[in-house]
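We modelled each protein-ligand pair independently. The example shown here corresponds to the flavin-adenine dinucleotide entry; the chain sequence is given first, followed by the ligand as SMILES.
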Amino acid sequence: MKPSMVIVGAGIVGLAHAVEGLRRGLRVVVVDRDERAVGASIRNFGHVCATAQDGFALDLALAARGTWLELSAEAGFWCAQTGTVVLARAEDELAVLAEFAAKRGDDQVRLLGRGDLDLPLLADDVLGGALLPLDLRVDPRAAVPAIAAWLAARGVEFRWRTAVTAVEPGSCARPAARSTPTPPSSPWVTTSTGSCRRSPTKRA
Ligand SMILES: Cc1cc2nc3c(=O)[nH]c(=O)nc-3n(C[C@H](O)[C@H](O)[C@H](O)COP(=O)(O)OP(=O)(O)OC[C@H]3O[C@@H](n4cnc5c(N)ncnc54)[C@H](O)[C@@H]3O)c2cc1C
């Protein structure tokens, strides 16, 4: 059956699009040039820092936080609800944290005195800090493959070792000289190819 959504890139951004496509009942195909995700989402990543966002981005981050918790339970990967501790080494940094706490309230930002910071290797000049309890932590090397497997089990098709070199409305192309499988065509093509590596050429 012809896909209704083609996603180029199986890093966390591509997988997030695939989760949303699945939720909307789309027939999703994910294309990646490698045999598994090995990009930024495996090498860096892991801190779900929802609280630092603001405005509409905060609404999105809190919605994404819920999705992380759901996926962790369903796909079976570790997701720690530890929050983030932000340290302050100067009075003006403490003042910024106090302003942040006053704006967000105790549910999102809890001020900590130095005596509350029960941390190993705490530097002598740390004055205090804040706990951002809503932030999460995942292990990218476990979470990314687990989400891909969870999607595949629900009918999302993964075409690994398939490089895309051009995207046009409704289709994507492969290099003529290379023996990669042919990427599919679809009404929706989403490129999620990461910021650290070259993106496919986009033709008008
Ligand atoms: C040091 C560091 C720490 C970071 N820490 C965090 C953090 O704690 N929390 C956080 O949220 N973010 C963090 N980030 C940012 C985060 O890592 C990236 O924003 C995120 O991983 C990008 O995901 P992606 O899916 O866009 O890219 P990638 O994970 O790189 O995925 C892109 C995929 O596209 C594929 N691809 C590329 N080109 C093609 C092509 N032509 N055809 C087919 N496939 C292709 C690649 O093979 C790859 O699998 C950090 C970044 C850095 C540098």
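The first strand starts at residue 5 and ends at 8.
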